[in-house]
Design a protein that fits this description.
Layout (H helix, E strand, L loop, with lengths): L5 H28 L12 E4 L2 E5 L2 E4 L18 E2 L18 E2 L21 E4 L10 E2 L4 E4 L3 E6 L2 E6 L5 E7 L9 H5 L1 E10 L4 E8 L9 E7 L8 E7 L4 E10 L2 E9 L6 E9 L1 H4 L6 E5 L10 E6 L11 E5 L11 E5 L9 E6 L36 E8 L4 E11 L2 E10 L7 E8 L5 E9 L5 E8 L6 E7 L12 E6 L16 E4 L6 E9 L7 E9 L22 E7 L2 E4 L4 E12 L6 E6 L5 E6 L6 E8 L6 E11 L4 E11 L4
Parallel strand pairs: 4-7, 5-27, 20-24, 36-42
Antiparallel strand pairs: 1-2, 2-19, 3-15, 6-34, 8-9, 9-10, 10-11, 12-13, 13-14, 14-15, 16-17, 17-18, 18-19, 20-21, 21-22, 22-23, 24-25, 25-26, 26-27, 28-29, 29-30, 30-31, 32-33, 33-34, 35-37, 37-40, 38-41, 39-40, 41-42
């Protein structure tokens, strides 16, 4: 199996370090010179050195408040279609006996169907976004969501909605994800294609919205669009970024929050989507993005190879940060044909000197044997009331979203899940790894939850501040229509069991037909940052037998009655939000006209920082007699075209002029200079 290793990283360091010193310095200076709203282009400035690829956003700016954007127009509705492609990963796994099956509902149950009474019913339970998902008349919805201090945000293909987390009432939406990029231009505004993820960055009290995009209607997915809220209000304005990742087809983006960056995994295929090239890791400069500044990304050069299984980045939960300087951790799906394991990778991203970044294999803790689910077909999970041609895709070839990380001080835990076949039905294989950043990495516990003949899949796992674990998932069979359920364990339950049994969040009353057998590509279980004890889960269901008519549900629950009392730890110092302000820049820096005079064209770019959103009034001084300048528009919020008209009578020479911009409250004034050259050539 091909993978990045410590020896390979050392090889790259030796081979490229000498030649990269000067190049690296030049690249850093170039990044520093970028304005916050750079000219829109087809690609980001990129480079490669020392085993790393790096680049900058090709554009970034500040959106209007989402609550002020016009509602989505029904005229933009597309025809019913299957959502973005989700090519299957090549199957290599060799089936083995599953020695960790939990074939009863709880450790104390003496019969298969005796559900433990310990698990409480949902605290809140309400409908989320329904088909058609606003901007996408498609299936599946790829349902996920995030919880903040006062709001819950749900996102699907291709819409989002903001809810009051106390009442469940809608605060904003549903609206299209692409509307967030209104006025941004390029692929993010016109080519948004779904696979969305919403995160709540509890360290900075911000929301992170992402989806991938294509630059041309018939081309591959090549771009990732990321928006970070400027405040804790999900309905407010966002810092917007467009990143061009390359020319391959970048599929299944999943992001995470880590103190030094936003990390992302991708399953990469060739541009036609017919050949799996391996997973690829990316890191985005979080400190710049929460401040609205030009941001860069770092990635190991290219995908890791078609023999490497997909992975996910660890997503930080809880108030305690990882150990100082700890690398971002990625964990791989155990799909190897021999010695399947939870390959654990370490990603040290250095945004100041990208060539110093490293992506290495840190550990290979073994996974228990299992039998693959649906290895050759997308139609294997049964539903009541439909034929086998409408059975559902179990997506048994990768880890399911999220990979949840938590630091307890005396140990670190990462929990995740995937779907396997157990005793002829789909079961949720969940696992807890410990000490993933410092080692030794170990499988603390794992189990396949298959308590009866119901098929369970599309899981999502999380852990609360007391170490209790919950799993949300879909459930179906030939006798029931797809349902949304959850199961859990207390930290004190016997290892390798979901000892608190199972509860129903919502029982669907319909089955899905058609839609390419797709049933979501992921769901999301997250933990409330306020009490660190309440789980929030969202997934899909059908209200009646139909195709392209899914519904979604949102619910919350607790595993333990008491709130956790974690050991006091230093509160991370939040990155300060810059005071509202702006800067000016003029491009090009100089324009030359011949003796007949004419018009010199410049662009004045206004770069906001902090929460600055005011118009800026522009004026010009320093032009020679016989020359005058006009701005279109004026006042301006982002950029203005400057036309300098020069009469033939203006004498030969080089003239430096100054543009002054004034705006905001309190008033801010800034200047920028450029040159006008007049010569005597005809």
């Amino acid at each position: 199996m091909k993978k990045y290793s410590n020896s390979r990283s050392a090889f790259f360091n030796c081979r490229f370090l000498l030649g990269f010193v000067l190049f690296s310095a030049g690249f850093v200076l170039a990044l520093m010179s970028l304005t916050a709203r750079s000219p829109l282009s087809a690609q980001s400035p990129t480079g490669e050195a020392n085993g790393n690829k790096f680049g900058s956003s090709y554009r970034n700016d500040v959106s209007p408040p989402l609550r002020e954007l016009p509602p989505w127009s029904e005229a933009d509705r597309k025809e019913e279609h299957e959502a973005n492609e989700n090519p299957k990963i090549p199957h290599r796994h060799k089936d083995e006996a599953d020695t960790v099956v939990q074939n009863r509902h709880s450790a104390s149950s003496s019969t298969l169907n005796a559900v433990a009474p310990n698990l409480a019913a949902a605290l809140s339970n309400f409908d989320g976004i329904p088909f058609p998902g606003v901007g996408c008349n498609c299936a599946p919805p790829d349902t996920n969501g995030a919880i903040g201090k006062t709001q819950y945000v749900q996102i699907v293909n291709e819409g989002y909605q903001v809810f009051d987390k106390t009442t469940g009432n809608s605060v904003l939406g549903p609206n299209s994800i692409s509307s967030i990029w209104t006025g941004f231009g390029g692929a993010c505004e016109t080519g948004g294609n779904g696979d969305p993820v919403i995160l709540y960055d509890h360290l900075a009290d911000r929301w992170v919205v992402t989806q991938f995009a294509k630059a041309t209607s018939n081309g591959p997915i090549t771009d990732e669009c990321v928006a970070v809220s400027t405040t804790a209000d999900a309905t407010g304005s966002y810092y917007r970024y467009g990143f061009h990742l390359g020319s391959n087809f970048y599929d299944y983006p999943h992001l995470s929050v880590w103190p030094d960056g936003y990390y992302m995994s991708m399953n990469v295929f060739n541009s036609s989507g017919t050949s799996y090239l391996g997973p690829q890791a990316f890191a985005f400069d979080r400190s710049k993005m929460i401040a609205g500044l030009p941001a860069s990304f770092v990635s190991p050069v290219g995908p890791l190879g078609g023999s490497v299984d997909p992975f996910l980045p660890a997503d930080l939960d809880g108030p305690t940060l990882p150990p100082g300087g700890a690398p971002a951790t990625f964990v791989g799906f155990p799909g190897q044909s021999t010695n399947p394991n939870y390959t654990t990778y370490h990603f040290h991203a250095d945004f100041a000197t990208p060539a110093n970044s490293t992506f290495t294999t840190f550990a290979n803790p073994p996974a228990a044997g299992y039998t693959s689910l649906c290895p050759t077909t997308r139609a294997c999970v049964p539903q009541a009331g439909v034929t086998s041609s409408s059975y559902l895709d179990g997506i048994g070839d990768r880890l399911m979203f999220r990979l949840a990380y938590r630091n307890f001080g005396d140990h670190e835990s990462v929990v995740g899940n995937y779907t396997v076949s157990a005793n002829g039905v789909a079961g949720v294989r969940w696992f807890e790894l410990r000490n993933v950043t410092a080692g030794p990495v170990a499988v603390y516990q794992e189990s396949t939850y298959q308590p009866d003949s119901i098929w369970r899949w599309m899981g999502s796992a999380a852990m609360d501040g007391q170490g209790n674990i919950a799993i949300g998932f879909s459930a179906s069979s030939t006798g029931i229509k797809p349902q949304i359920r959850y199961a859990a364990r207390l930290a004190t339950d016997p290892l390798n069991t979901l000892g608190q049994g199972e509860a129903h969040l919502y029982d669907g009353t319909g089955s899905q037909s058609g839609t390419g057998n797709r049933w979501g590509d992921y769901s999301a279980l997250v933990i409330d940052p306020v009490d660190d004890a309440t789980f929030w889960y969202t997934n899909e269901y059908y209200a009646s037998n139909a195709s392209f008519n899914w519904r979604t549900r949102i619910g919350s629950f607790k595993v333990a009655s008491a709130s956790p009392t974690p050991t006091p730890t230093p509160t991370p110092t939040p990155t300060p939000t810059p005071a509202p302000d702006f800067t000016l820049a003029i491009t090009p820096s100089s324009v030359t006209l011949n003796r007949g005079g004419g018009t010199a064209s410049y662009t004045v770019t206004i770069t906001p920082s902090g929460t600055f959103s005011s118009s800026v009034t522009l004026s010009i001084s320093g032009l020679p007699s016989g020359a005058s300048g006009t701005f279109t528009p004026n006042p301006a919020t982002q950029s203005s075209a400057l036309k300098v008209t020069v009469a033939s009578s203006v004498s030969k020479g080089t003239y430096t002029f100054t543009v002054t911009g004034t705006g905001g409250s309190p008033t801010k004034t800034h200047t920028a200079a450029a040159k006008l050259v007049k010569n005597q050539k005809p």
